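Module 6 notes. Inverse folding takes a fixed backbone as the condition and produces residue identities as the prediction. Think of it as a translation problem where the source language is geometry and the target language is the twenty amino acids. Below is one complete input and output pair. Work through it position by position during the lab.
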């Protein structure tokens, strides 16, 4: 059996088992990754050290760093303060609260990134829904979807955008100006869809609503001095994320440095709770971390045997000479594939193909920046960004933010199944990609 067939078989079986949820997804991902290495599809060096085929440690250590920071901030009562503030702003009405949290999540995802945002927002959601005795599952799924939509708007909002910006030599304002307007429209349509699904059905007992409205956010603060220090440090970390391309540091480095400083500030505080000096590390969602490690190696196997580049190449070459067809093929193909596999290696495979297409269409142009900014090439970059980012809403494992939200929900005692997420996320993905198609046609293809 060829390596190509083996890689497809291992990934396909792993995906099916994850969908059935008979075995925990972390076990499945690690077992599939071990098979990829053990059967020689990827070598151990490639799995652990290759940027192209192996684990994306920028994502892994970004998650670890932010999880440590969140665990320390939780001790200050900040999340309870934000939860009470959100509930009071929404008049403690469930649907208003759902919309407020969705809009806040989308906005923060555009300014930071979607993984960091859901790590910050999920505890707030769990806290306030507990006070109102609401099931948080719908709130959390909505937040995951909103984070992926909001993250599409900017260069820093989703990792694929950073990769595309680097290859296409695009800046922060380029993304904001081109993708920002359509993301605003998507969020407006998304809120309308939420009203149809939840607006007439969400209710909360009057006494619970009155009790929450009577709460004072200041009463939730456990240590004001420590909270102030944490807020300053969190602001510095978030500033680092926004300026990471200027200071030439990856988000993972900023997150780890921030986590280290947070742990120095919180030195000894964890020991008060469970007797362990490094309790903040013990509370990291290690199941999520190892799931990502396994998933990266699984997808790396597909990249190594050429499965992803073959599909990407077909998307581009099948419509060569037909700009409208090429743009729509890249948009929809990217969305569907990003629902099934991690969008980072997919974008890594697509980037050079678009450059090669540009070279074949414009052999007379030698300047790289001029080449990749040609009027018939630019729509392909934006189609790739929209498809890769929005496609993450299609399935539970389509985006890092989804996986993080699901594991936080499980830890809180509210498991979200693959099919629960799919029933909500996949139609949203189809709707947003359809809106993207109209937008691309109006902007570039008329």
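Target side of the pair, the amino acids:
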């Amino acid at each position: 059996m060829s390596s190509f067939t083996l890689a497809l078989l291992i990934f396909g079986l792993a995906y099916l088992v994850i969908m059935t949820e008979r075995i925990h997804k972390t076990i499945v991902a690690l077992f599939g990754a071990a098979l990829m290495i053990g059967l020689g599809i990827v070598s151990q060096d490639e799995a652990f050290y290759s940027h192209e085929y192996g684990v994306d440690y920028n994502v892994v250590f970004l998650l670890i760093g932010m999880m440590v920071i969140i665990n320390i901030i939780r001790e200050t009562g900040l999340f309870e303060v934000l939860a009470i503030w959100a509930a009071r702003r929404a008049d403690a009405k469930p649907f208003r609260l759902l919309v407020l949290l969705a809009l806040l999540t989308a906005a923060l995802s555009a300014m930071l990134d979607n993984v960091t945002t859901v790590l910050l927002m999920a505890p707030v959601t769990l806290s306030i829904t507990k006070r109102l005795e609401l099931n948080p599952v719908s709130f959390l799924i909505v937040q995951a979807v909103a984070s992926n939509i909001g993250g599409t708007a900017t260069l820093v909002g989703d990792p694929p955008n950073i990769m595309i910006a680097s290859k296409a030599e695009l800046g922060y304002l380029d993304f904001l100006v081109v993708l920002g307007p359509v993301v605003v429209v998507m969020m407006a349509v998304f809120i309308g869809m939420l009203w149809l699904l939840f607006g007439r059905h969400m209710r909360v007992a009057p006494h619970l609503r009155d009790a929450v409205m009577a709460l004072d956010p200041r009463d939730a603060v456990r240590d004001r001095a420590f909270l102030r220090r944490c807020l300053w440090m969190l602001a510095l970390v978030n500033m680092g994320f926004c300026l990471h391309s200027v200071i030439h540091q990856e988000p993972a480095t900023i997150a780890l440095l921030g986590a280290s400083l947070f742990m120095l500030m919180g030195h000894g505080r964890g020991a008060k709770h469970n007797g362990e000096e490094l309790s903040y590390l013990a509370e990291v969602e290690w199941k999520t971390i190892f799931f990502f490690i396994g998933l990266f190696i699984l997808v790396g196997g597909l990249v190594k045997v050429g499965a992803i580049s073959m599909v990407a190449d077909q998307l581009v070459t099948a419509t060569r000479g037909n700009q409208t067809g090429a743009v729509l093929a890249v948009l929809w193909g990217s969305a569907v594939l990003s629902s099934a596999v991690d969008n980072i290696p997919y974008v890594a495979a697509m980037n050079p193909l678009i450059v090669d297409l540009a070279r074949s269409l414009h052999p007379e142009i030698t300047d790289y920046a001029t080449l990749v900014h040609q009027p018939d090439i630019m729509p392909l970059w934006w189609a790739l960004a929209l498809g890769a980012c929005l496609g993450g809403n299609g399935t539970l494992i389509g985006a890092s933010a989804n996986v993080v939200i699901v594991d936080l929900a499980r830890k809180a005692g509210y498991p979200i199944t693959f099919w629960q997420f799919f029933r909500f996320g996949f139609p949203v993905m189809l709707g947003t990609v359809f809106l993207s198609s109209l937008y691309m046609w109006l902007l570039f293809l008329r």
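Reference fact for the lab report: The chain has 24 helices and no strands.
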